[in-house]
């Protein structure tokens, strides 16, 4: 190889030296300096054997990787339409495929070596994270407002989880506002997803609800500015409903029976099949069918004080039976119109010490607040987040990092 001093005037020698000093190019952890790549996506009715045989991979090789790495790496029969795959080939007239890479999701990919070694492994793309800020005002819905602000709808979904115990999202109205400080994830310079929300401010009906993420004592949760836990013992509602068709009453005229009798629950009108969630941790103490009443129903005991009942279900979630322990937010059944009912809805009832209470007037007790031993650290985090969000709100070019 020719060597030359880069300070001399020999341009050809400088070009050769510059090429020699270039950083090697990699794709999926494989050096591709002397190779070529072919990028595609899985099309409808496309199967692995068709994809591989089209590139000259033998049936024996396909059969081997399909069986050998089905459990330990990736089952190639599980490829999905629209997912990307890449072939790395020799840079000659034969274009022999050396590697086949299938992207399982945005981060993970499976690499299959198609040479004599026939090895395979799972790789991971590097994910970088930056803190970013977004705000907006609602004119129709939080979902549309987030889109108008250029935000990822996963932020909306996270907000609905964070505020599930304190804000009725069906009560969101025009003029409400949101502010969010969050982690934006990037892969190869492109946005790939949303990480943690660090702080949020949701104004609903002129009431400001603040939320701050805080880890301490081996647990993590969201708290308001005073350190009170935003997570309550129970969810505000057991489903996403269209409207409340009937409220708690000691004397309601029954639309089917044509008589006046107590209705010790709340009827949530929703489409048949809508998932119904347990409003809190507990144990299923009763499951059955009432032909002349609630149809398919479940009763959950949450603790020594509170019990909830879910009626007129179309069916039960898989694995739900008497004695099953359930978690808050776990799907337990689906909206139906079984029993005596004029249409699909959930009749939801709550008992306190054996007495029916109005779920809409019930104020759920909070989960544990920030431990007093960590309150100083929490207050410092709140101050820092507030400072960042204020600066970002006042200056769109402010770098929250």
Would you kindly provide a written description of the structure presented here, covering whatever features stand out?
The chain has 401 residues and is of the alpha+beta class. 16% of the residues lie in helices and 38% in strands. The strands form five sheets. Strands 13, 16, 17, 18, 19, 20, 21, 22, 23 and 24 form a ten-stranded antiparallel sheet that branches. Strands 3-4-5-6-7 form a five-stranded antiparallel sheet, with no helix packed on it. The protein has a five-stranded antiparallel sheet with strand order 8-9-10-11-12, with helices on both faces. A hairpin with a 6-residue loop joins β14 and β15.
- Number of helices, counting only DSSP H or I runs of 4 residues or more: 6
The percentage of residues in β strands lies in 35-45%
Write down how many β-strands occur, each being a DSSP E stretch of 2 or more residues.
Answer: 24
**Cα separation of the termini:** 47 Å
Nearest-angstrom radius of gyration? 29 Å
Largest sheet: 10 strands, antiparallel
Low-confidence stretches: 1-8
Rough shape? globular
| SS class | alpha+beta
Order of helices and strands: HEEEHHEEEEEHHEEEEEEEEEEEEEEEEH
Q: Helicity level, as a percent range? A: 10-25%
What is the residue-mean pLDDT, rounded to a whole number? 88
């Amino acid at each position: 190889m020719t060597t030359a001093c880069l300070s001399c005037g020999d341009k050809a020698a400088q070009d050769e030296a510059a090429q020699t000093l270039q950083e090697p190019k990699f794709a999926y952890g494989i050096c591709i300096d002397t190779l070529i790549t072919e990028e595609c996506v899985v099309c409808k009715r496309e199967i692995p054997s068709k994809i591989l045989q089209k590139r000259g991979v033998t049936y024996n090789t396909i059969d081997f990787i399909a069986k050998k790495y089905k459990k330990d790496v990736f089952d190639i029969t599980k490829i999905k339409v629209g997912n990307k795959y890449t072939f790395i080939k020799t840079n000659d007239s034969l274009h022999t495929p050396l590697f086949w890479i299938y992207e399982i999701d945005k981060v993970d990919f499976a690499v299959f070596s198609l040479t004599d070694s026939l090895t395979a492994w799972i790789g991971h793309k590097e994910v970088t994270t930056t803190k970013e800020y977004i705000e907006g005002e609602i004119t129709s819905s939080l979902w549309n407002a987030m889109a108008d602000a250029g935000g990822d709808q996963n932020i909306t979904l996270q907000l609905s989880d964070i505020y599930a115990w304190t804000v009725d999202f069906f009560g969101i109205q025009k003029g409400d506002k949101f502010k969010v400080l969050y982690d934006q994830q990037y892969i190869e310079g492109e946005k790939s997803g949303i990480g943690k929300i660090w702080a949020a401010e949701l104004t609903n009906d002129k009431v400001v609800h603040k939320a701050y993420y805080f880890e301490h004592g081996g647990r993590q949760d969201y708290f308001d500015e005073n350190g009170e836990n935003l997570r309550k013992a129970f969810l505000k509602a057991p489903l996403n409903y269209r409207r409340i068709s009937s409220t708690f009453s000691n004397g309601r005229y029954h639309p089917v029976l044509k008589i006046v009798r107590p209705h010790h629950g709340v009827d949530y009108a929703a489409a048949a099949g809508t998932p119904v969630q347990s409003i809190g941790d507990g144990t299923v103490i009763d499951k059955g069918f009432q032909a002349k009443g609630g149809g398919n129903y479940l009763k959950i005991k949450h603790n020594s004080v509170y019990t909830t009942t879910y009626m007129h279900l179309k069916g039960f979630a898989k694995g739900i039976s008497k004695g099953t322990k359930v978690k808050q937010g776990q799907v337990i059944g689906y909206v139906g119109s079984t029993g005596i009912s004029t249409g699909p809805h959930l009749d939801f009832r709550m008992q306190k010490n054996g007495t029916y209470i109005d779920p809409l007037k019930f104020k759920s007790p909070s989960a544990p607040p920030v431990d007093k031993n960590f309150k100083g650290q929490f207050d410092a985090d709140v101050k820092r987040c507030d400072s960042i969000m204020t600066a970002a709100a006042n200056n769109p070019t402010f770098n929250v990092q």
